[in-house]
Design a protein that fits this description.
Layout: E1 2-8, H1 12-23, E2 30-36, H2 41-51, E3 58-62, H3 70-80, E4 85-90, E5 93-95, H4 99-106, E6 111-114, E7 117-119, H5 122-129, H6 136-141, H7 143-148, H8 156-159, E8 182-186, H9 187-192, H10 206-216, E9 220-223, E10 230-232, H11 243-261
Parallel strand pairs: 1-2, 1-4, 2-3, 6-9, 7-10
Antiparallel strand pairs: 4-8, 5-10, 6-8
């Protein structure tokens, strides 16, 4: 079974659409573990109202809001997951109906997958948030217009889906296209590196650190582009005051590995 580890923080309107998009999956052999980094009561009320009639199990994990501590709540979600394969998703991302099926098709022992995202403009995001419910077909019907008008930044990866192959494999660690809002790995591999580095607090690069340590542990990175794209809702940029320090720490680990090899 697949466990979707869904990170969220104080945006219930977006989380509602995200959950509704997950409810439309053609492949329903999965569970959802919501990793909540301290949201208010509106988020809990939303989850409670949706979980009883939801087509797959939902577990809500919550921790006190003491600043950006996504790594800690995600490690709790990894521990709570019943599935042997983990798909990481953010609550401000909406998925296509074949999202789970595409990730399942790319799952392979000894590999992790880093997916990609389609960025939505502020105006299109506001339109979707006003919808009574998620409607993938309605969005796709106007997809070309959204691309021409700047509502989305990609078109063809949503229209053309490619299968697996060695062309997806990364030869070495690169920062590019690592997005914690859409990536996947085996639970055993995540546990082998002790999950996310909980000393990395504040927004930025905890996902790159996670991927680097998986690759350092001989897990091969595979691209999920042209298969697993998610729609990323527009929002203001997070507080990035810790980003530079987090990036420095990842670079130090990369350099340490390089020295050990040489």
């Amino acid at each position: 079974m697949i466990s979707i580890l869904l990170a969220t923080y104080n945006w219930p309107q977006a989380l509602k659409l995200c959950l509704e998009s997950l409810a439309t999956q053609g492949d329903l052999d999965f569970e959802i573990i919501i990793a909540d980094d301290g949201s208010g009561k509106e988020t809990k009320e939303l989850i409670d109202s949706m979980k009883t009639a939801f087509p797959v199990p939902i577990t809500h994990l919550w921790q006190e809001d003491l600043g950006f501590r996504k790594t800690i709540i995600l490690n709790q979600a990894i521990a709570a997951a019943h599935g042997d394969y983990l798909v990481f998703l953010d609550g401000d991302c909406l998925v296509q109906p074949d999202f789970v099926a595409r990730h399942r098709a790319l799952a392979q022992k000894g590999y992790l997958v880093t997916g990609s995202r389609v960025l939505l403009s502020e105006s299109l995001t506001q339109q979707l948030l006003q919808w009574p419910s998620w409607n993938f077909q309605s969005l796709m019907a106007k997809l070309l217009g959204h691309r021409v008008n700047g509502g989305i930044n990609k078109y063809w990866p949503l229209k053309i889906k490619l299968g697996d192959g060695v062309w997806r494999h990364y030869k070495k660690f690169v920062w590019r296209r690592i997005k914690g809002c859409n990536m996947a790995c085996w639970k055993a591999d995540a546990k082998a590196i002790h999950g996310f580095d909980e000393t990395m607090t504040g927004w930025g690069h905890e996902d790159a650190d996670f991927v680097f340590r998986l690759q350092r542990n001989h897990i091969i990175r595979k691209s999920g582009s042209w298969a697993t794209e998610v729609f990323h809702l527009f929002h203001q940029i997070h507080d990035q005051s810790n980003a530079a320090e987090n990036a420095k720490r990842v670079r130090e680990k990369i350099l340490a590995k390089a020295r050990s090899v040489n």
